[in-house]
Amino acid sequence: MYQSFETPRLLLKPTTLADADFILALLNTPKWLQFIGDRNVKNLSDAEAYIQSRIIAQYQRLGFGNYTLIRKEDGAKIGSCGLYSREGLAGIDLGYALLPSYEGKGYGSEAAKHLLEAAFQVFQLPVVKAITHPANTASQQLLEKLGFSSLGTTIIQEETLCLYEITNAQNL
């Protein structure tokens, strides 16, 4: 129903209720909890409710959202990457997260670069923002590698976060 994407090593598939077990695992990894925050997704039922209310609802509203990253070589669900409409942030935000065993292998960069291109070329977004926890230096380095510019900090839900932005003109 919604568009999927493909990179040399990954399939980026819109997240559905069939991904609930994966979402449950991802949202409870140590780095997710530390850098993104506890979403109170503690069981399969919570994961299904989260997907329905947060992910599917945004797809229905905007036509894009969270993509489950599937490694082509073995079909493993390894992470997520998405374009998000976040409460407290004006504009669309690029976000990504990987299961710990798949970090440091370039998958996050590969998925984020492709989805950023789709943001501009497919979804015709004029600008994409990104936020990251100040201690998440790996995420900040990836954003800078992708061409994002630092805009300083922003406060969302009483938390100070690093704010980045890239425009369509910068990307081309």
Could you explain the architecture of this structure?
By secondary structure, this protein is α+β, with helices and mostly antiparallel strands. The protein has one domain: Gcn5-related N-acetyltransferase (GNAT) (Aminopeptidase), CATH 3.40.630.30. It is about 35% helix and about 30% strand. It is built from 6 helices and 8 strands. It has helices at about 20-25, 30-35, 45-60, 105-120, 135-145, 170, and strands at about 5, 10-15, 65-70, 75-85, 90-100, 125-130, 150-155, 160-165. The strands form 2 sheets. It has a 5-stranded antiparallel beta sheet. A 3-stranded antiparallel beta sheet has the order 6-8-7. Strand 1 and strand 2 form a beta hairpin. Helix 1 (about 20-25) packs across helix 3 (about 45-60). The mean pLDDT is about 95.
CATH level 1 name? Alpha Beta
Amino-to-carboxy terminus distance: 28 Å
Count of runs of 4 or more consecutive helical residues: 6
Computed over alpha carbons, the radius of gyration is 15 Å
Domains, number: 1
Order of helices and strands: EEHHHEEEHEHEEH
Structural shape: globular
Q: Spatial order of the strands in the main sheet? A: 1-2-3-4-5
